[in-house]
Amino acid sequence: MAAGRSAATKIDWTRITTSLGLKGSTATSLQAFKKRNDDARRKLAALQTQPQTVDFAKYRATLTNGAVVDEIETHFRGWKPVTYDVGRQLKAIEAFEGQAVKSAEETKGRVDEEVRALEKTLGNIETARPFDELTV
Fold first, then answer.
1. Residue 108: alpha-carbon gap to chain centroid
2. CB neighbours of 85 closer than 8 A, spacing ≥ 6?
3. Residue stretches of the chain with pLDDT short of 70
4. Alpha-carbon distance 121 to 116, whole Å?
5. How many CB atoms lie within 10 A of CB 65?
6. How far apart (Å, rounded) are the C-alpha atoms in residues 37 and 43?
7. Could you give the C-alpha distances from 103 to 20, 64, 88, in angstroms and in order?
8. pLDDT tens digits for 74-100?
């Protein structure tokens, strides 16, 4: 998650909009996403500064059924966060990304080839004799 956070802070939003030439609803959607990202980041920072302890004694004094509080406290004390090895998923994402880049480059090559063929055809059309010279 730290890698995701560091990557998210390095995004130059204005550069993305200008370099990709985004206009209209796409640019508006990107700005809305940036706003939601900034809001979520602010909320996360605010929540991280709050204390993360539970005062079970207060709940025991308030509630008449202390057994419920005891049971919740045992579950709370016994809870440990689960760690996942995301290396396999990251490798799959990188492989997919590599395949996507390769496919995009192949598509770009085919499009460039098609553009060259169309330019050649357009050149032939422009250099052809006028229609009135072709009729007898």
1. 23
2. none
3. 1-9, 135-136
4. 9
5. 9
6. 10
7. 19, 65, 22
8. 998 888 888 888 888 889 998 999 898
